Amino acid sequence: MQVKYLKEQLILQIPPHWTIRQLKQTLQSKTAIHPDRQKLMAANKKFDDTTTIGSMGLKGPPYCFMLVGTPDHKMVVTAEVVDVFDDFELDYWPDEGEIQDKLQREESLRNAIATTQINLISPIQPTKKLLVLDLDQTLFDFSGRRQTQTLSETMRPGLVEFLTNVYKFYNIAIWSATAWTWLEIKLIEFDLLPNNNFQFTFVLDKSSMFSVKSLRNGKMITHSVKPLAIIWSKLPQFNETNTLHVDDLSRNFVFNPKSGIKISPFKYSPETARADRELFYLQKYLCAIANVPDVTKLDHSKWKDYKL
């Protein structure tokens, strides 16, 4: 059996009558990840801890799994005390002429391309476009956890339905300004990774972002960006014509304004949770334009008013 974990390929001798739980206990000794925090994925198969390896109908041997989880020694604080920096008030979309030091910007992009590695979580659907989604305050408000009784309340209304429906038309990727350790915890805690209704193609964290300087109202502002060219350099089947980027911070797609879709930030409160319908409208828009040959020909700033 082969289990892929980060950059490692773990080779195990596991009898077919063993359960997934027994496999997880074995993996704990090799990865220091508690079985309750392990997420195993295998060729779109549905299974739980009581499922036996031999009953899964996997191709092999060797049987192949992918493992996601955080080792015990990296669980330095609990998710209850995580603070998410709220920088919405600092958001703006600088014009091309406002971005300073273009040579430095280009060098930063080259460095980011050189250091970024994209590990596919699920196979690319070759006939479908790429949808890149921000996480915090776009899909949920993790900072709102203190105001809720359950974790699911901090999910933006309609999130699972949104991901399920757009997955029929898009390869879905997550790009968050969060470190991978916390990003992984968030996706697992929200039961988004893995999920039987949709799959993420890959996930990027803040290590693939870099900062640029822009002139705003006569003042120099430093802010981070998410250049899609990093993805396109690694996955050449995607480009500006078939990639969309949804974020609550418009400056994150300043390098690719024709691919960006600005969504209002989701800041949890009982009132906003009842009123928020952003993902329902966005779902309709994304499904409606799924077959448009070149998404850069659309004015995404008016996505809420789009009509077929």
Automatic annotation (TrEMBL):
Its top-level enzyme class, in one word, is: hydrolase
- Alphabetical GO biological process terms: regulation of proteasome assembly
Q: What is its main location?
A: nucleus
Cite the entry's keywords alphabetically: Hydrolase, Magnesium, Metal-binding, Nucleus, Protein phosphatase
What residue stretches are annotated with the Ubiquitin-like domain?
Answer: 1-59
EC number(s) per UniProt? 3.1.3.16
- Give compartment(s): Nucleus
Among its keywords, does the record have Nucleus? yes
Q: Gene Ontology terms, cellular component aspect? A: nucleus
What cofactors does the UniProt entry give for this protein? Mg(2+)
Highest taxon above the source species: Eukaryota
One of the entry's Gene Ontology molecular-function terms is: metal ion binding
Signal peptide residues on this chain, from the entry's feature table:
none
Which reaction(s) does its UniProt entry say it catalyses?
A: O-phospho-L-seryl-[protein] + H2O = L-seryl-[protein] + phosphate; O-phospho-L-threonyl-[protein] + H2O = L-threonyl-[protein] + phosphate
| Residue ranges of domain FCP1 homology in the record | 124-289
- Descriptive protein name: protein-serine/threonine phosphatase
